[in-house]
Amino acid sequence: MLKANYLIIFVCSIDKSYRIIMLIFNTTLHIEDTVHDECLIFLKTFYIPKALESGLLSQPSLAKIERQHEESGVSYAMQFKTEDIDILNKWAGETGEGLSAELNKRFGTTVGGFVTLLEEVSLI
């Protein structure tokens, strides 16, 4: 079951050239085979567009995770970028909690996941 605590405490940094280092908000989802197609449509047509509506998150991506140990179901990494933790926390309070609740309402325990916050590393 997807139960993500969206209150995140993290320190954003700026590289030596004062370029803002973006945060990557990653949600890893495991979707059971019985709801896979329906859930993927939901993510693409409802969840991701709603997540972007506020303008607080940007650059969405959805990547299938190659099967490792699972015998059934499919896992995905859904990612968005944001400039800092305050913006992410604002999004979580205004939008994220509702989207998580909607995902749980529609799919219950057939979709599970966890959240990871990543900080981009400058290649310069």
Task: Give an account of the 3D structure.
- The structure is a single chain.
- The protein has 124 residues and is α+β, with helices and mostly antiparallel strands.
- Helix content is 32%, strand content 28%.
- The protein has helices spanning 36-52, 85-107, and strands at residues 23-31, 58-65, 74-82, 111-119.
- It has a 4-stranded antiparallel beta sheet, covered by helices on one side.
- The protein is globular, with a radius of gyration of 15 Å.
- Mean pLDDT is 86; it is low at 1-15.
Summarize the structure.
The protein has helices at residues 36-52, 85-107, and strands spanning 23-31, 58-65, 74-82, 111-119.
List the helices and strands and how they pair.
Layout: E1 23-31, H1 36-52, E2 58-65, E3 74-82, H2 85-107, E4 111-119
Low-confidence stretches: 1-15
Q: What is the arithmetic mean of pLDDT?
A: 86
Structural class: alpha+beta
The main β sheet shows up as:
4 strands, antiparallel
Please indicate the percent range of residues in DSSP E strands (runs of 2 or more): 25-35%
Output the radius of gyration.
15 Å
Q: Note the gap between the termini.
A: 40 Å
Shape: globular
* Element pattern in H and E: EHEEHE
- According to DSSP, the number of beta strands is 4
How are the strands ordered across the major sheet? 2-3-1-4
The helix fraction, in percent, is 25-40%
Number of helices: 2
